[in-house]
Amino acid sequence: MGVQTKRTSTPAPGIEIAPGAPGNGRGNGRHRTSANGSSGSAHEGGGQTAMATAKDYVALTKPRIISLLLLTTLATMFVADPAGPALSTILWTMLGGYLAAGGAGAINHYIERERDARVERTNKRPIASGRISPARGLAFGVALGVAAIVQLALTVNPLSAALAAAGLLGYVFVYTLWLKPRTPQNIVLGGAAGAIPPLVGWAAATGALSAQALWPFAIVFFWTPPHFWALSLLIADDYAKTGVPMLPVVRGERATRHQILGYSALLVAVSIGPVLTGLLGGFYLACAVALGLGFIALAAMLLRNPSRPAARRLYLSSLAYLALLFVAMAVDRAL
Questions:
Q1: Domain that holds residue 169
Q2: Spatial CA neighbour of 73 closest among 207, 212, 220
Q3: 62, 21 in Cβ contact below 8 A?
Q4: pLDDT digits (tens, 9 = 90+) for 264-320
Q5: Residue 108 lies inside a defined structural domain of this protein
């Protein structure tokens, strides 16, 4: 028996919130306007309080998704500079990272507005529901992205700004606009954009990139497919409904589960790499092995006994896995 899917969302790429969680907005069908911004009682400025509108703009940045991205950035800063970067550098980097990722998230809301409007969970998002017009949502996202690049260049260094720009542009143009609608390998090929935050952290801490900086990048890169495909098993109906060729829709659930297990094994192998090159030591190795064996076990369980609970368990565990692994990196460098 395959994983029974449920219509929940057509989510944005990268690190995702759990399906079934509240949508990034409020309102209901009676007050919803079209994704093209036609007028209605819930349209921006047409009945909403200033606080509600402000919350909608914050929702466009996808703050829950950004939190894990920023953790990888912060941990990598301490891996790159075990003595610890200056507090001002950390704060400016976190701000720039939030603005860049938030800008990408807002632009994603704009691009995905018509697909979001067609599925139950996401049709209450600010742009899809019409509470924020598409033009204003796009302008907000672009403004955040530009502000991030300028702020990082002025307060951190030009390299971190350039990397943040590359991540934003790659996410929007390479993944969302080009790869996602065209190939079931979209998350593999486009996963590099989501793996940029650790590089931003390394560049912010040191002002340069070394070969060792590729390890945190590679870990996030190989983590993305099993993480996202576990989620895609839960919401495959939404992808089919909106015509997005995600792996479970095109290749089927069993093939997806095999791919999840294969990439999980690759991820664990890559996670050992920083020890082999002398970047990290015994504490990290113990954590990476323990976390990796648990991750592979969950992927194997999903393959043997496919079910919604198994897919959800792997998806949620993947979030904890990445967070704990990056914390272990930073702790190991401090020992």
A1: 31-186
A2: 220
A3: no
A4: 999 999 999 999 999 999 999 999 999 999 999 999 999 999 999 999 999 999 999
A5: yes
Is the separation of the CB atoms in 201 and 85 below 8 Å?
A: no
Q: Which two tokens stand for residue 109?
A: 């809301």
The pLDDT tens digits of the residues spanning 151-190 come to 999 999 999 999 999 999 999 999 999 999 899 988 998 8
Q: Are residues 270 and 157 in the same domain?
A: no
Please give the pLDDT value at position 291.
99
Quote the tokens at residue 223. Answer: 């983590």
Q: Both tokens of residue 108?
A: 């994603």
* Coil vs helix vs strand at 150: helix
For residues 249 and 322, state if they share a domain: yes
- pTM of the predicted structure, to 2 decimals: 0.85
Residues 6 or more apart from 104 whose CB is under 8 A from it? 141, 145, 167, 168, 171, 172
Helices (H), the chain: 50-60, 63-80, 87-111, 113-116, 134-155, 158-169, 186-189, 191-194, 196-206, 214-234, 236-242, 247-250, 253-276, 282-304, 308-334
**Whether residue 132 is found in the same domain as residue 49:** yes
**pLDDT for the residue 46:** 54
Place of tokens 């260094």: 157
* Number of domains present in the structure of the chain: 2
Q: What stretches in the chain show pLDDT beneath 70?
A: 1-47
CA nearest neighbour of 150 among 89, 75, 99, 84: 99
Per-residue DSSP letters for 12-24?
Answer: PSSS-PPTTSPPS
Classify the C-alpha dihedral 204-65-220-174 as positive or negative. negative
Domain identity same for 160 and 35: yes
In this prediction, residue 47 carries a pLDDT of 62
**Cα→Cα distances 201→30, 39, 93, 250, Å:** 45, 43, 7, 36
Among 66, 79, 88, smallest CA distance to 327 is for 79
